[in-house]
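Dear Dr. K.,

Following up on our conversation at the group meeting, I've run the structure prediction for AsmA protein from Belnapia rosea. I'm pasting the input sequence below exactly as I used it, so you can double-check it against your construct before we proceed with anything downstream. Let me know if the numbering doesn't match what you have in your notebook.
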Amino acid sequence: MPDPAPRRWRRPALIALAVLVLLPATAILALLLAFDPNSQKPRIQAAVQAATGRQLELGPIGLKLALAPTLTLQDVSLANAPGGSRPQMASIRRVEVELALLPLLSRRVEVRRLVLVGPDILLETDAEGRPNWAFTPAARPAEPATAPEGPATAPATEAPATAAQEAGRRLGIAVDRVDLTEGRLAWRDGRTGATRSLDIARIETRADPASGALRLTGGVALNGVPIALTGETGPLDRLLDPAATTPWPIRLGLEAAGARLAASGGIAQPRQFRGVQLAVEAQVPELQKLAPLLPDAPLPPLRDLALTANLTEATVSDLRLSLGAAVLDAVLPGLHLASLTATLPRQDAPLALAAEARLNDLPLRLAGTLGSPTLLMPGAAPQPWPLDLTVTLAGATGTARGSIADPRRLAGVDLALGLRAPDLAALAPLAGAPLPPVRDLAIDTHLAERTPGFAGGAILRGVRIASSAGDAAGDLVYVIGQRQGFTGSLASNRIDLDALRPPAAPPAAAAAPAAPPPAPDRRVIPNLPLPLEALRIIDTDLRWQVASLVAHGLTLQGMQLHLVMQDGRARLDPLSATLPGGPVALRAAADLTTTPPTVQVAAQSPGLDLAPLLTAFGQNPPQVTGHLGLDADLRGQGSDLRAVAGSAHGHLGLALVRGSLAGSVVERLPAELRRMLPAGAGGREIPLRCAALRFQVEDGMAQSRALLLDTALGRMGGEGGLNLKTEALAFRLMPDLRLAGIELRAPVNVAGTLHAPRIGVSPEAAIAGGLGAFLSLQNSPDRSLQALAGAFGGGGGELPDCESQLAIARGGRPGPAPAAAQAASPPPAPTRAPAPALPGAAQELLRGLFGR
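The predicted structure tokens came back this morning:
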């Protein structure tokens, strides 16, 4: 039978326990019944005013009595900073706080449920960048200074005990559930006026009954993009306990537009946000779907982005970023990314890169390392930022190695750049056009900035170029300013321009018949636009020496070039070289500051051997031989070649000695001139003693100052002019031919245009020429016939000699002398026999003159 003693004391014990519990609860309930929350408004408002310097507005405050009483607040708002875009910085339509009574007995506040309805928070800056969340607490009134009573101040060793006691007197706080709905968080930049808004549909937190861990779920929308939130953190009391040492766990998740972001880890001192250790993971199937979230950041069309990293405080480690296949035509036309991987073992370690892609269907690979990304962060102290990259494309390899002293400013750049291309033609798909078949191309140089950030251009030191088409070495500076261009000097042992000529493009597919071309303008000087507009945007000062230059099969030795372009003016002085036939020097200038532009070209050569020169041009055997002197200096105005010629001023002189004319040259003469020559003259080489020609040009009108041709067939002089505006010809030529003892001098008129010249002999001149030829056969010419020939225009003054005409053509400069004149054959002895019949050759001459 059980002992009744325990029963006797158990019941009073339960009653006593009930009294101990209910009595304080009843007292608290009675206190709540007598409590008027609205009477506390002034104290609450004053406390907030003192802490923030802002005015707090409170609507009605209510209290719902129950075992878990609920405190309600309506229309709560906090004033904005002075000059803000709206009066309130924050407002809440309704707040509900449901409290547990019994924990209050142990100085612990347990919030069973906290409800926030319609919170609206605005974070903004003013025009000077001052934020509205920078509060200014109200100044406290100064306390009167009084002498201390009692013992002196306790020693410093008592401070920890006092702090511990203060901590013990603090209330414990726990929140079981938080519900936030219909909220809004806005951001406004007072300098730019840009705004962003985060709409909060709902956010809920629940405390685990056993562990106290807080679990979070919710949904928000940023710039109209829905974002799902999940998370779990440690207990709230651990967050508020300053004496706790265990890390406060945290796990957060975010999903938006198919992308996911997760972070898990812990915070050693969550109240100070110190000792953060998080593992971060992100997956983004399509980066551009996040564009509404980052409207100011142009996002490339990247796909399958995956990111993992560890965060310790503000330090990143074990970072790995990978990208999948993506079409990046928007970044670079023809670029198709296959994969990209970036790894960063430590924050201060180099960033390793590896990528594969195709560019215009050519295989592209990238590998190498970059300096630590932390050196690019704002506020980072300038330190050398190393760089080592290798790019391979269609067999070509490009490298960049070196460092940048100040990477944020791109200052102190010291990079060794290199390019190796075994076959340049293999890169034709990249250029979009055929490339020359240059092989074994090697380029090396050192790159430095001209001004920080390359804003003023770049410096290329120690340029070295080698290839099957030639070489070059020197220093160059690429200048960026109001105009762009290069300055510097280069030297080459060999340049083969023929090898740099790309192959001819394949014939295009047959197209529909094109419209008939416009009727030709029947002009010889083309209406060719001159490339002068480049002078408006380019400033250049470049010197180049080439030991051997090959162009169109012609080899030039010792070429020197100095090109200066500045402020819309250009000067090429000199451009000199030694051709296969001898040296030649050119000068050219252009001035785009005048209207119309001014162009000048000058050329000089003391003597070019035409035989090797024409042979080098592919004319074998050469049609003309001899030593040619050149003296030209012409200038004009216009934007095309025809306009420049039509306004030309200057001179052009040609002097040829000790040469010959091929018979084919005679055969190509106009028929009117060929008829003056004996039959068969075009079938053999004609020795040429001299040829002199000089034009003085004024306003497009070229007037002859020297005009003489001295050959084995005779001589021809004359005078006349050429209108370069209309290309009209007006010449009067005087042939002085000798053949088989016959002298023929009949003026020839040349009119028409360069495109369609008209050559003719007047009847009077033909009669005079015939009489002159007849009289030349007589030992004692008939004076009356001589007078008749003169009356018809025959005879005329003697033609000048080679020496005088060559001096004029050369502009007074010395030059090689012509071959010695052949001595005339002695006249036959007088005879009384009748004059013999005209030789066949002479008859042909006369028939040519009379046209029958």
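Two things stood out to me. The CA atoms of residues 307 and 321 lie 5 Å apart. The radius of gyration is 51 Å.

Best regards,
J.T.
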